[in-house]
Amino acid sequence: MVAALALSLAVLDAFAGLLSPTPINYGLVAHHGAPILAAARSPSWAFGPSPTAKCSTSRPFGPEILYRRTYHFDADAARLTPQGPAGADTYLFLGDSFIFGQGLPDDETLAAQLVKANGLKVRAVNLGVPGNAPNHLVRAFEAGLLDRYTSQSSRRW
Question: Which pTM was predicted?
């Protein structure tokens, strides 16, 4: 009886597997010319891009290429964005691949769009990194890694 039950469950599982649709992103592969996360920004960061790095990446889906992009990073290992004048209000963008703008050109990220929408009168620093999580952001604040972007009078946290 137990063997019959186990066999029927195995057959049912195999049949359900045949009826299941192909998983989302099945066959999606990332190819990076230079790793995005080659080195940490500093010993306190878990991981991140190298300062002044340039990383080429592509995403094929089967025989089709979804995108080819080259990401550029500044001396602080932040993704390049158009900048407003020195002394302008600075906005920090912290987060994962959505903030980083994975798959987007440098001038189409969320940070770049904010600067453009404000007529290049503000500054934006895109510190997003694919794979970042809230614990990475907490660590950045605790270690004082974001202090250079803020003044004592503007801190509200």
Answer: 0.69
- Digit-by-digit pLDDT tens for the chain (157 residues) are 899 999 999 998 888 888 887 776 676 666 555 556 655 555 555 567 777 888 888 887 777 888 888 899 888 788 999 988 888 888 989 888 899 998 899 999 999 999 999 999 999 999 888 878 888 778 777 877 777 776 654 444 4
Query: Token digits for 113?
Result: 């769009």
Q: What does the alpha-carbon distance between residue 51 and residue 45 come to, in Å, rounded to a whole number? A: 13
The tokens describing 40, both together, are 């940490």
98 φ, ψ (degrees, to nearest 5): -70, -45
* Whole-number Cα distances in Å, 63 to 29, 66, 108, 109, 133: 11, 10, 26, 27, 32
CB of 98 closer than 8 Å to CB of 128:
yes
